[in-house]
Specification:
With 640 residues, the chain is an alpha/beta fold. It has 23 helices and 26 strands. The radius of gyration is 25 Å and the shape is globular.
């Protein structure tokens, strides 16, 4: 019996992919990347922020010079190597200059977004032991209402935007221009600062998990953790200098941050955008690479479906038939890939049959005439590779982008793992999987109760070990002991299985498991993914802990739901909910391996889950406890 433990070393294709990237193996700190990039790319544009309060564009040379100046400015304000400075702000060049300026000064930053609740930001200040604070604006500083021990702890504040607010600041407050001026004077007087100690394990940053439940935990990451990611992302993507990237995820989040370091290390041109400006910027920038979370890909698919519904019936039929054919083509390609990756020999007749199956004339015609126009309308038309992370990607969404010719790769990891553990390769892009481990990474599947290793193909708890895994939570040895064992295996809290080629397939979250009153354990994520394929459903969350049956909180798509209701024999809300429940149960029953205990007792229609109402994290994951609290009455009605 082959045990489900994969210790991944680069194979020939991984090695060839990494050989095409710049060699960063000699680095001992992330701050050492920028002078080399200034030498390699000079006046090429590195960053642009067209929507910032003060729009900015920086070349690679200006980025390096800015980091040196900011580092000198922090030094002039008294920041010493080894100290922690809190950084509460959103995407923009000044965030990166502050982040890397602090690392260049030998310090570390404790980061969080400016939209986090003030009590959470105050908690981070206390927990991290920050000696100073960098904030987006005076308004955010005033909202923090700093007092007592926090005022004694902090030496100064730097404002990334604007001057002081209407209230006198409670401690020394320096606008961005003043920080730069102090840095320029220090450089003129003494020259560049000596580099930090060549210790890869020194602290680089503390990230605070947004989490879906409970108090955030500090995740300290070292330079070695971050450098592992920068050196090994190249197994999945191969950016070239000058390639365009649109950045929409929060820059302080582990996934966006490591991806940004990597893409800049390849000489890419990065544009910061917002969710509000994303659609326009996709058309204006026409990115070659786009990195985001499943919710964005779902939204793009939803936009396509909305546009399709508004077209004349004949065009709807044409595109619908072409899309179905291209999806079938993709399924045939996946079967061929599965056979090619199988350790078992493949008979010649099977291979010949697959080659015949891949001859799809309608798909070839659509790929030439239809899908380029769709890609142009959705993402600008130049996209080479899309990368999804931060959560499971529904198979129907994955298949859509495959059908229209967008290479969508999926990565998997956690804040505690810097974050990427596994990713799909272009030559092994298994739909429905989270890909193979990064070089130097080990993945093991164990029984959740006994912690004994399971066999290949058996589902269990996913453990990980590698250079990107944190050493432990900040100041929380008990929490560390719960997730890290004596051999360095990190408990991800995810459930999954390993395939023979090393690909990881995720099947749910251990802590999200719904236990019915019958004792049956239900993983909600795969069922929710299936339900999201319905044109009636925008968002969904399953409930049912300690109940006889599952229920579903549904955020509907208004227009399709209205059309659905018109065809019902009764016009009451109760009749609509019964019909919607039947439709959901039909979808769930059609899932491969469907179980009777995966049916819904009922559904309730609820208001959207969003960032603004606090029901989604910054990476658009559902905060299940908060949703359940808000919609307690709706849940009660399902079971009433």
């Amino acid at each position: 019996m082959a045990l489900a433990t994969i210790h991944w070393t680069p194979d020939g294709r991984d090695r060839r992919a990494l050989a095409q990237r710049h060699d960063w193996s000699a680095l001992t700190g992330l701050e050492q990347v920028w002078p080399e990039l200034a030498r390699l790319h000079g006046d090429a544009i590195a960053l642009e922020a067209p929507h910032a309060a003060e729009p900015e564009t920086l070349t690679y040379r200006q980025l390096h010079q800015g980091i040196e100046q900011v580092a000198a400015g922090f030094g002039a304000l008294g920041v010493r190597p080894g100290e922690v400075v809190a950084l509460f702000a959103e995407n923009g060049p000044r965030w990166l200059l502050s982040d890397q300026g602090l690392m260049r000064a030998g310090a570390a930053d404790a980061v969080r977004g400016s939209a986090a609740p003030p009590e959470e930001l105050r908690y981070i200040l206390r927990d991290s032991g920050a000696v100073a604070l960098v904030v987006e604006s005076a308004l955010l500083l005033e909202g923090l209402a700093l007092e007592g021990e926090l005022l004694d702890q902090l030496r100064f504040v730097v404002l990334l935007e604007g001057q002081g607010g209407s209230q006198a600041p409670p401690l020394p407050c320096h606008p961005w221009a003043e920080l730069l001026q102090r840095g320029a004077e220090a450089l003129a007087a003494a020259g560049p600062r000596p580099g930090p100690a060549a210790q890869p394990d020194r602290l680089a940053t503390i990230l605070y998990t947004s989490g879906t439940t409970g108090q955030p935990k500090g995740v300290p990451l070292s330079h070695a953790n971050l450098l592992h990611q920068l050196r090994h992302f190249g197994v999945a993507v191969a950016p070239q200098p000058g390639d365009r990237v649109v950045s929409v995820l929060p820059i302080w989040h582990s996934y966006e941050r490591s991806a940004e370091y990597f893409l800049l290390s390849c000489g890419c041109r990065q544009t910061y955008t917002t969710l509000k400006q994303l659609r326009a910027d996709l058309q204006r920038v026409r990115p070659h690479y786009l990195i985001s979370v499943p919710r964005l890909w779902e939204a793009l698919l939803s936009g396509f479906e909305t546009a399709l519904a508004a077209m004349p019936a004949a065009r709807q039929r044409l595109l619908g038939r072409a899309l179905a054919n291209s999806r079938s083509y993709g399924q045939a390609r996946r079967r061929a890939l599965d056979l090619s990756l199988s350790p078992e020999p493949v008979g010649g007749r099977v291979v010949a049959g697959l080659r015949a199956a891949l001859r799809w004339p309608l798909h070839a015609l659509a790929a030439q005439l239809l899908w380029p126009k769709v890609r142009q309308q959705l993402v600008g038309g130049a996209l080479r590779t899309a990368i999804s992370g931060g959560g499971a990607l529904a198979l129907h969404v994955d298949g859509f982008f495959e059908a229209i010719g967008i290479e969508l790769l999926v990565g998997y990891g956690l804040t505690e793992t810097s974050p990427v553990l596994t990713c799909r390769r272009r030559w092994a892009n298994r739909r429905g999987s989270a890909g193979q481990p990064l070089p130097g990474t080990a993945i093991q599947i164990v029984d959740p109760e006994t912690r004994q290793p399971l066999a290949i193909g058996q589902r269990g708890l996913v453990l990980a070990r590698g250079p990107q895994v944190m050493a432990g939570y900040w100041g929380k040895p008990e929490a560390t002991a719960r997730v890290l064992d004596g051999e360095g295996w990190f408990d991800t809290g995810d459930l999954g299985l390993l395939l023979a080629d090393g690909s990881l397939v995720l099947t749910g979250r251990a802590k999200d498991t719904i236990v019915l009153s019958s004792g049956e354990n239900i993983e909600p994520a795969p069922l929710e993914e299936a339900l999201l394929a319905s044109p009636l459903i925008e968002q969904v969350m399953l409930v049912g802990q300690d109940r006889k049956q599952l229920g579903a909180l549904i955020v509907p798509r208004p227009e399709p739901l209205q059309a659905f209701a018109i065809g019902l024999p009764e016009s009451s809300q109760a009749a609509l909910l019964r019909a919607l429940t039947r439709d959901c149960n039909r979808i769930l029953a059609e899932r491969p391996g469907s179980r009777l205990d995966e049916r819904l007792a009922g559904v309730a229609l609820v208001e959207p889950f969003s960032l603004d109402n606090g029901l989604l994290t910054q990476t658009l994951k559902q905060r299940r406890d908060r949703i359940a609290a808000r919609d307690a009455a709706a849940i009660a009605a399902i079971y009433g």
